[in-house]
Amino acid sequence: MTGCQENGEGTLSIEQVVVVESFLAPGQPPSIKLSSVIPFTTDTTTEIANAISAMEVSISVGDLNYNLVEMTDTPGTYEEPTKRLVIEEGETYQLQFTYFDHEVIGTTQVPSKPANFEISDTLIKLPRITEDSGPGGMPSMTEIELTWDNDESDYYLLTIHYMEEEYDTINTVFEIEDAAAAANFSSQPLQVNFYSIRSMQFSFFGRYQIVLSHINPEYARLFETLSQSSLEGLTEPESNVINGKGIFTSYNSDTLWIDVLEE
After folding, report:
1. pLDDT higher for 40 or 68?
2. Domains within the chain, CATH numbers bracketed
3. Mapped to the 3 state alphabet, what secondary structure does 116-148 carry?
4. What is the pLDDT of residues 203-248, one digit of tens each?
């Protein structure tokens, strides 16, 4: 990221750049997080820090305009206090506020809910692997097929969440240092209509929630550029915010379940 950002009226210094973070979903109250960007070295590298408070933030849809207020327990986070603003599929929402005399704007249209989301099997049985299991203790490879409609090659994202309170390890031979990271995983943004989960991707016995989210292109690009940034340290994250950084986007999801049981 460079020291200044181009906009319609010239350039913004780093101190004048606001970072927006908001992911709208149908039926969920909108939440907007605002942060500042500060340089932490003498070169062009930057990091996100410091909540931005006391802003007049609004979201409009059609002819209706809703004022958001800052949450007292989470500085820099703004929500609609009356709960009258309910996010709906197909609607277009515009975020707007002023920061350092520049109008910051973000726009998103809520995508449709995934259609015909199906799973080939809702149950996998695997043997528990211990030091006494021997060479024959390794389970055979099982694939679970997930399918949905995607005639337009839209973007989708799959996330798998472990729902149990305690971790019941399948392979006890190897120690898992970060159980939460091993139990929960996701795909890259997909433009196809299928995805395969292999049995070896599950590290624990129990119930899993499989969420398929229909996402917008800016959401997919953000996901991809963040992955590149973590690998290369060079790619600037995607932004669809005018006179700012970050993301104002939306998604729509459907959910399936799968149980991984001990054989």
Report:
1. 68
2. 4-110 (2.60.40), 118-214+254-262 (2.60.40)
3. CCEECCCEEEECCECCCCCHHHCCCCCEEEEEC
4. 999 999 999 999 999 999 998 887 654 444 445 678 999 999 999 9
Q: What are the residues facing 131 on neighbouring strands?
A: none
Q: What are phi and psi of 180, to 5 degrees?
A: -65, -40
| Single-letter residue type at 197 | I
- Torsion, CA 217, CA 218, CA 222, CA 225, rounded to 10: 70
Interatomic CA distance for residues 206 and 145, integer angstroms? 19
Q: Which amino acid is at 134?
A: G
CA-wise closest residue to 193 among 230, 223, 228, 151:
151
**Bridge partners, residue 167, by sequence:** none
What average pLDDT does this structure show over 190-206? Answer: 97
